[in-house]
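ok here's Reticulon-like protein, seq below lol
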Amino acid sequence: MTTFRDIILWRDVKVTAVVFVSGFVFLVCMTQFSLLSVVTAVAMIALIPMLVIRLLFTARSAFMKTEFQHPLNSYLSKDINVSKDRADLIGERAAGYIVDSTVSVRRLFLVEDLADSIKLLVVLYILSYLAQWFSGITLTFIGFIGLFTVPKAYDMYREEINSAMSTIKVAVDDLLDKINAAVPLAKPKPVEDTKKAKAGDEDKDKSA
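and the structure came out like this:
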């Protein structure tokens, strides 16, 4: 069975080519027509041939006076039910993803870690700058083409890219360390230090 990873890494060239060309044509149509027009047109293109096939087989059965057999019965009879265990697993993963995302958003926007929040600010600034130069459909084109090129390029040149990214990460971490040193954050005192401080205050009260 072909997975999403196999598709974007071009491991099955025929399937990937079909998905890529179909998606690209769909995006081109989106630049000329509204989303509703494109969706309804695609639905009609898929439905009309099925109707023609059904009518032809129905007419042949009536003409030959034979029992009608649906030409696509093998597809109609396929079981597409999701097992309870599979559904529970999907729901558990989705719930975990939502919780983790919510926690991450809260941590970033409430500036729990200064370095991470600064990274988010830089990313948001870059996106706002790109939004001034490119429309949403253009960014979608770039993202779609990147989905079918960047993972493949990374898979082919994994060692070189990892080496370059490690160098960049070290430089960014050094910069963030300097920022953290220049803007120290108020960190909560350890529990032991808090207990010692309270004990010292009690001793002072007793001495008084």
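fwiw Residues 1-63+120-157 form one domain. kinda neat tbh
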